Amino acid sequence: MSISTILNKFDIKHADIIKKYQEEGKKIIGCSPIHLPVELVYAAGMAPMGIWGSYGEIARAKEYFPAFYCSIVQRIMEMVLDGTLDVLSGIMVSTQCDSLKALGQNIKRVYKEKNIPYIHVAMAQHRKIEPGVDFNEIQYRKVKAQLEEISGNEITDEKIEEAIKLYNKSKVLMQEFVELAAKHPDVITPSWRSIVLVNANYMDRAEYTEYLEELNAALREKEVVPWKGVKIVTTGIITNSHSLNEIFEENDMAIVEDEVAQESRQFRTLVDENTGNPIRALAKYLGDIEGCSLMYDPDKLRADMIIDKVKKSGADGVVYVQAKFCDPEEFDYPIFKKALEKEGIKLVMIETDQQMTNFEQARTSLQTFAEML
Ligand code: SF4
Fold first, then answer.
1. 25-56 burial, b if ≥16 CB within 10 A, otherwise e?
2. Longest CA–CA separation in the chain, Å
3. 100 C-alpha to ligand 1 centroid (Å)
């Protein structure tokens, strides 16, 4: 099978994915960012579906949030209010940033009227110490009980272990895909790279894993064509905008690595297997994540991790995609910039939001950056 035929399997409209779940009689649980225990949803026989990263108008959500609020959160709220998400049998919202905390409470209020269960996923920011892991385990047991009630299925430890293994397998394949994509930017363009990685949040994970095995096998076989453009590492919360990826392509920029919340932050850390207590393993996983702006990280390892990625991948520079009004990312930027400057690594920051239709400012910055590299 050709690489383009396999790639097309990942290019599915969200409406079609939902339709397929409905035809299979599967309940869908919306998962609002990030690092949520999606394995518990899968173990309950339901479909976890990411609900962050959509683009479009924000109108009614403005009644719930001030104008200077993160647009990722506002878009989720807009979809809650306009009925787009009424297909859900429940919604899980994490609480790692202040914007998400308010989002959860607003959804809870609206969904009470719609009779859609709201699943609050509290997470300890002191996630590495024993009491933090204990707290997260207790929270996940509450989440498990709610998911059992919604699905009508018991979530056994065996089922959770199976789900952990499936998700880990897909994460290892995604790590390999990122390496293969860096070798083959002539076919894995920024747009395709984004489609393949981001759709893991929506597609059935077993099916996704199967397709990714096929894609990686085909890419392993493909002859390497020397890349004449520039190589970049991207970082930020989301970079799935079609317009943004087109700008990368227009400027012959190949993404050879990323440190993006919706991409590699999702799969670079595995959950421990065969521990005898899979719920605790999921709680411990939160403590194992490094370099994420949403997680308490006094050592601020993110910059060092990216410097390492730049050196290993031979990238020419880094693009910091700042989600507008995202405090955790804004706090990281000055530390990050200082560390990259010290290493002599070129960096550009562009700002995006979920309502953006005009990318001219980003286009100009990226054109100039590409010429500098
Ligand atoms: S981390 Fe940033 S982008 Fe994500 S929900 Fe919070 S404010 Fe929005």
1. ebbbbbbbbbbbbbbbbbbbbbbbbbbbbebe
2. 58
3. 7
Domain shared by 225 and 328, yes or no: yes
Residue pLDDT, tens place only, 200-257: 999 999 999 999 999 999 999 999 999 999 999 999 999 999 999 999 999 999 999 9
Strand partners, 31: 50, 92
Indicate the pTM of the whole model: 0.95
User: Could you tell me if the CB of 37 is within 6 A of ligand 1?
Assistant: no
Output the six-digit token pair for 225: 């064509």
| Residue 326 in contact with ligand 1 by CB distance below 6 A | yes
Distance 98 CA to ligand 1 centre (A): 8
CATH number at residue 97: 3.40.50.11890
Q: What is the DSSP letter of 223?
A: P
Range of the domain at 232: 160-372
Number of domains in the chain: 2
Would you say the C-alpha torsion 24, 75, 290, 196 has a positive or negative sign?
A: positive
DSSP string, 134-174: HHHHHHHHHHHHHHHHHH-S---HHHHHHHHHHHHHHHHHH
